[in-house]
Every structure is written in structure tokens, then in C-alpha cells.
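To make the argument concrete, we let one protein speak, a sequence paired with a row of C-alpha cells, as a model reads it:
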Amino acid sequence: MTYNQSIRFLYESLPMYQRVGAAAYKANLNNTIDLLNHFQNPQQHFKAIHIAGTNGKGSLSHNLASILQEKGYIVGLYTSPHLKTFRERIRINGQMIDEKYICQFVENNRDVFNKIQPSFFEMTVAMAFTYFSDKKVDIAVVEVGMGGRLDSTNLINPDLTIISNIDYDHMQFLGNTLPEIAKEKAGIIKENVPVVIGETHAETEKVFMSVAAACNAPIVFADQHFSLNRVKRIRKKDTPLLTFDIMHYNQNYVQQCVSPLTGIYQEKNFLTLAAAFEILKEKMNLSEKHFKNGIKRCIRNTGLQGRWQRLQSKPLCIADIGHNEAGIRMNVNQLKTMSFRKLHIVLGVVNDKDIDTMLALLPKDARYYFCKANIPRGLKAGMLKKKAKQYGLHGSCYPSVKEAYKQAKSNADSKDVVFVGGSAFTVAEVI
């Protein structure tokens, strides 16, 4: 099989949440267990860090992988969804999985796939773990797809678990209250394995404390131990950067950190990252130098994209994959801190999100370019425009994300800002 044939088989033969949504969701781990048994449980052959959360888990995964790479480890990185190509999901030291490996994996195991009938995600997890085992990685950073307890990634035995935060997303699968969602995500907490919780929340703190106690898992709430100081957004050689110090109980912990990730929400992620580093530094022989260089070189080391990503300067064009209430709120808050003449928003969403809540948060004084990402789950541009009008948001429909973005840039002058968002799939078509 060629690479394109292999990818077509994966996309067309296996139920794929990215494309069809709920129909691809499996509310148990049976298929993953069967697949991993077939591959002789490759997840048992490498160390791992397991990361869940509503928002921020992708950025955390990439930053941690980068820090470990700076030490010289061979680091596997599993994330989802991909933006441009399937190969983004599975990396070793920033390098995407080999096309040849994908072809062989699919060709050699088609009978198994036909027998077990896994989802696209279940198969992808099995491929990632097998690849990491075959390539003998020292450690893998594994991002949860959805939830935690029933996520296919939850068959690893990690050295550390991290839950970035809890907010409303995927409620049809995870529950309608924050404690219910927290309980699902707490399902990654393992016996005697330390866990870092990124944000303290009155409704979820007791859930995490209870699950951790039952598992005898040492627990740390990052924002109770760490804080940021001297946070600045600067520009160096026309490159936007975030600079900050990290404090531990109001004492200097790491000074003069520099990150290419400038989104406001990253500030919370760096607290979580610091708490994880504090646990890992002796076990993995990590130094402050590895921490700072890992953060500074995150994009270079791991290929992270789509996080408050600057697409061009004049007009300033920014894309961010925030796609739920918390993500949109953060994006809007950051836009409010910026100076511009006019704001142009290229907006595309998927049809199974809480669209009303998202639209209610968006600024009414922006010009909107409604579009549909090229996936079946995408909400039609006309329907999005009609719904947006109910919230005082006005603009025009476009036949594609690229056309919407092209028109937004054409309409914007040098003092305007163009923002692309609403969905990772919308962002994927412009980066």
C-alpha cells in the first residue's frame, strides 16, 4: 500500500471522531485492550507522562517533550487531533512518524482491524505505542484524546499524570457538571503515581483529592504552589515572545523564562509545567537549563502549531485552536488587550459544540467571515451566520475557510487585526 492508500483506509474504513463526531466514540476500552494485546502490549516497554484536561494539554505535552529533548532523551509525543497531516499525531524528538512505517503497519494488520473493528482513534493509539516501542524511546508524553477514564490512551503506566484544567466541553460524553467532568478526567490517576492538577476549582478540588487518596497518589495543585512574576509580551526581531519569572511560594524558582507561546492561557500552563518539572527533575536528572531551553525552543523542538499563532504582520493575522467556552473566552480577553482599528474574525465551528455559549462571548463590533471547515462535523456557514445574528454578530458567508481568510486580509488595512478561530479544523486550513 502507498502512503495515500494507507491514510485513505484509516479515514474511510474506521469511525473517526474528527469527521463524524459521536458515532466514532467507544464508551469502553475493549477494542484498545484487544489491539494492544495483539501487538504484545508495547505500552509496557517505555516510560510515560500522561496529560489530560479541557484546555492546555496539547501545549503542556509539547513543552514537556521539548524539556526532555533538551536533556538528550529520545522522546515520543502523541497528540490529537492533527492540523495538517496525520503524521503530526505521532512524533519522536519532533520528527513525525515515517510514512513507510504507517504503510507497513496498516498493510500488515488490516485483518486485525477488520476483525476488531476499532475506531480511528483506537487504531492510532495502538500505532503510536507500537512505534514508540519499536523505536525504543526513553519516555513518551501522551495526550488524552477526550476525558480520561475511558480514553484509549489510559492503558499506559505513567511515571506522572497531569490534568491541566476542567471546563465545559464534550458534555454529551463526560457529564453536564464540572464535578462529573472532573471525575472522568481523574480516571487517569494511577496507584502511587504523582498527579499534578493545573488549576484549583472549588467544584472539582474535592473530586481530585478523593480519587488521588483512593489511589495513594501524591497530588499537587500547581496554582497553590507556583505563580508568575514580571510577565511581559515583547517583540524580538519581529517575533512575539512571552517573558516571565516563576515563583515557588513567593520565592524565585526559575527566572527570565522566554516562550514563543504568547497566548494569555499559556500563563496557567507554565504553572502546571513548573509543578511537573519539580516532580520530574530529580527522577529524570533535569536542570533549570533544560527547563528554560525546552520552553524557549518548544516550537522548534516539537513542531507545535495553532496556539495564538501569528500568520503575518501587516495586517496582523492570528490563529488559535480554542474551540470551547473557556478557549473562546481566553481568545476574546487577549484580543481586548490589543490595539487595532478594526477586528476581522474568520469563524468556523463544529456542530456538536455549545455554539450559543461561544457566540455570546464574541465581540459585537467585529466584522465576521463565516465559513465551514472541510469536515462533515463542520456547521454550514449559512447556519452559523443565522445563529450569530441572534447575538448581534454580523458578516458574510464564504464557500471555504481559505476564501474567508483571503477576503478578511483583503478588507483589512495595516492597522487592523484578523483573527481565525472557532475550531482546530478551521485553523488547520490557514496555517
